[in-house]
Amino acid sequence: MSGPSDFQPSNPALQWLERRLPILGLMHSSFVVYPTPRNLNYWWTFGAILSFMLGMQILTGVILAMHYTPHADLAFKSVELIVRDVNYGWLLRNMHACGASMFFFAVYVHMLRGLYYGSYKEPREVLWILGVIIYLLMMATGFMGYVLPWGQMSFWGATVITNLFSAIPYFGESIVTLLWGGYSVGNPTLNRFFSLHYLLPFLIAGVVVLHVWALHVAGQNNPDGVEPKTEKDTVPFTPHATIKDGFGVACFLLLYAWFIFYMPNYLGDADNYIPANPGVTPPHIVPEWYYLPFYAILRSIPNKLAGVIGMFSAIIVLCFLPWLDAARTRSSKYRPLAKQFFWIFVVVCILLGYLGAQPPEGIYVIAGRVLTVCYFAYFLIVLPLLSRIERPRPVPNSISEAILAKGGKAVASIAVVLVAAGALFLGSLQDARASEGSDKPPGNKWSFSGPFGKFDRGALQRGLKVYKEVCASCHGLSYVAFRNLAEAGGPGYSVAQAAAFASEYKVKDGPNDAGDMFERPGRPADYFPSPFPNEQAARAANGGAAPPDLSLITKARSYGRGFPWFIFDFFTQYQEQGPDYVSAVLQGFDDHVPEGVTIPEGSYYNKYFPGHAIKMPKPLSDGQVTYDDGSPTTVAQYAKDVTTFLMWTAEPHMEARKRLGFQVFVFLILFAGLMYFTKKKVWADSH
Amino acid sequence: MNPDASTIAAGAPIEVDLSPVAEGQDIKVFWRGKPIYISHRTKKQIDEARGVNVASLPDPETDEARVKSGHEQWLVVIGICTHLGCIPIAHEGNYDGFFCPCHGSQYDSSGRIRQGPAPANLPVPPYTFVSDTKIQIG
Fold first, then answer.
1. Which residues of A touch B (CB under 8 A)?
2. Could you tell me the CATH number of the domain that includes residue B50?
3. DSSP notation for A299-365
4. Structural domains of chain B, count
C-alpha cells in the first residue's frame, strides 16, 4: 500500500504468482518493510489488538451460529444448550460475549489515543472518519448481537432502542415497523437481527481494510506529532512493530482471559438469564456498559426527539473533529491546556457511563444534564477556542531528537498506573461485605467461589435431594437432564445411578402408532419434568405468581453491589450475588412483619425479597428432609445445599472453566514474558 | 422488510368479553403483540379524568374523546409507554392511572401523560362495542 514493491520471492512458484498477482509484494511492503515511527508507545498497539479482536469475534461467532436457533421460542434455550452440551460451548460463548466488551474497551482506548495525540488532523481526516464509521457499525453489531440470546434485557433493550427511531417525524413509525417486521418486537425482529448481526462484521472488516489503507497512505501519527523526516526516524514494521504488537496483544489477552474464565457474567445483566417476556418490563432497562454514556445523554434531555438527536450527535460530532480542532500542534504532549481538558473529558465520559446505569431520578438527572453539556462543550467550545488562545510548547524538530530528549517520563507514567492498580487491589483485600445495608443478602463462604473453586459433591447430592423432595413440587428444572447428574464436575453419580434416578420419574412421550401420548419411565437423556404443563397453569395454581424455573436461578438473580464494591469485585472475583441472594431468600422468611411493611393477602413477608411480599410460603423447616450422611438437618444447611446444587444447574461446566482458566493463565504469563524479552532484544538498537 | 402475510393475518381484529371485569379492575389482552389495557373505571376515576383542565395537559385531549360515549366506564388503551416502549403498570403513580417503571412517566385514569419524559398520551386502539359487554379490537 505504499507504492510499487521491489519484493522478489526466491521460490519459482511464488515468482510465477507474484507476476500475476503481486499480493506477496503488497504484504511485504505493508507489513514488513513499512516504516513506522520509532517513538510509538504502547497505546499504538491497540490497532493490532482491535484487528485481533475482530478476527476472534468473527471466528467464535461463525461457530456459535452453527449451533444457534434464531427463533423467538427457541433462541434462549439454544444458547443454554450451547453452553451446556456443545463441546467447549461455554468457552465459545464466553469468548464471544466478553469479546464484545473487550472489543469496545480496546476501541475506546484507540479513539482516546487518537484524540490525545491529534491523530485526526491533516492529512489523516479520512482515516479518522473511517474509524468513526467502524465504531458506528460496531455499535449496531453489538446491539443486535445482544438481542440474540432473547433474554429479558435483550428483548427490552431491543424495544427501547428500536423505539428511538419512532421519534423521527413523519417516517418514524414506518421505520420502526420495518425494523420489527411486525407490530412489535417479535420473531421477525429476531430473525432479521440475526441476519444483520452476521453481515455487519464483514462490512466492518471491509471498512477496516480501507482504514488500514488510509493509514498506510498518510503514515502513522506518533506521540510527538511530527512527521518522520529521515530514515533515522523510523523502523521497519517487521520485526519491530510486529513484536511490540504481539506483546501488546499478549497482555490484552490476560485481561480478556480474566473475564472469560473467572468473571464471565461480570459485565452482563442478571435479567438476561430470564427468557424474554413481552408482558413484563424489567424495573431497570440498562444497555451494555459500552453504550451507557450515550444512554445517559439520551435520558438527560427531557424531549424525546431532542434526546434521540442528542444521542446520535454525540457520535456524529466526532466526524467533524478534524475541523473543530484547528490547532497546528498535533500532540497534546505539547499542548498544556488541551492536555488538561482531555483528561476532564475522559472523566466526563466515565461519569456519564456511571449515570447511564442509575435510575433516572433526582440528582442523577441534574448531573446527567450538566455532564451532557460538558460533553458537547468539549467538542464545540473548548477545542475550537483552544486552537485560538493556547500557546503550545515548542515541538521537537524530528522524532529522533524527541527520543534523545526523552527522560524518565514513560517510567513515571507506568509507575502511576501501577500505584493506582495496587491501591485498587489493596482496597479489594478488605472485606467487601463489611459495610452492607441490612436488606442486602449476607455473604456466604461457598465451596465454588474463587479461582480454584469446586463444587462440594456432598452438598450437590444433598441439594438434589432437597430440590426433589421440596422445590420440585412447584419449580421446574427444565434445562437439566438426568444424564448431567453423572457428568464430570457434577454431583458425582455414576451413569447407572443417574439412569436409576431417571427411571423414578414418569416422562410423557409419543405419539405412538395409535396417535396417543403415553407415559414411560425416564431415561438419562430426558430432562427433569416440569410440575406444570405451561406458565398459565403454574400461575393459576399459585395465586397468580408463576414459580420460576430454577435451572438458571442463581445466575438470573442478583442485587446491586453499588460503588465502589463493584470495582473491588472485579479483583476479588466475587460473583456470588446470585447464590447469596437465593440462600438469603430461603432463610429470609419471618412471621413477624416489621412496622411500615404491609403484606397483601396470600403473600408472605421475606426480608430479602424485593418489596418484601413473596407469594411463596416458607418452603423449608428444620428436619423436613432427612440426610444420610449425618449433616445437620437445619434450614441453614438445606439452604446452603440446595443453593450449591442450583449453582451447579446454572453452570454445570464451572469447574472445567476455572481449571482451564488456570492453565491458560500460566501459558499466557509465560508467553507474554517471552514476548517482552524478544521485543527488548529486537528494539535494543533502536532506542 | 415490511410485515409478511402471516404476521398481518395474525393481526386481525379480536373480540373481548368484558362481563367478568368488575368495577375498579382491569385486564390486559394482547393484540398484534401489543398489550391492551381494558380498565373498568370507577366513578372517582372518571370524575378525576374529566375534572382536569384539558389545556394544562402536555398532550391536550378530553376524556370524552378517548372513550366511547355511553360506555364511559371503559378505558381501552395500548399499554406501551410513548417514551421508549416499556409497559406501564396499571393502578400506580400519582394520577390513579398508569406508571411506567422504566423512566418514570405517569399517566392519569384516562391514559393521558401527566408527568415524565413521555411525549404523548397512551394511544387508543381502534375498537367498537359489539354489545354492551363485548368489544372488538381492530
1. 156, 159-160, 162-164, 177-178, 180-186, 188, 192, 278-281, 283-285, 299, 302-305, 307, 360-361
2. 2.102.10.10
3. HHSSSHHHHHHHHHHHHHGGGGHHHH---S---GGG-HHHHHHHHHHHHHHHHHHHHHTS-S-THHH
4. 1
